[in-house]
Amino acid sequence: MKIILNIKELRKSNNVTLETFYFDTGIHLARIEQGKTNITISTLSKICNYFKISLSDFFKEIE
């Protein structure tokens, strides 16, 4: 659950809407944020790349 909350916070802090994120990446972030689908490390990597953050920095914020 912490991963989902961190993704949502990252998106909001960058002022990116779910619609904009989907159009830019093709990833249905709403489904992930709502817990309707599991996130893979590949998808998480794409999300991090979009927000210009490394996976290690992403996980540091969860701790």
Automatic annotation (TrEMBL):
Segments passing through the bilayer: none
Any GO molecular function: DNA binding
Entry-linked InterPro entries: Cro/C1-type_HTH, Lambda_DNA-bd_dom_sf
Alphabetized CDD domains for the sequence: HTH_XRE
Classification via SMART domains: HTH_XRE
Cleaved signal peptide residues: none
Domain HTH cro/C1-type as annotated: residue spans: 7-58
Name of the protein in its database record: Helix-turn-helix domain-containing protein
Source organism of the structure: Flavobacterium profundi
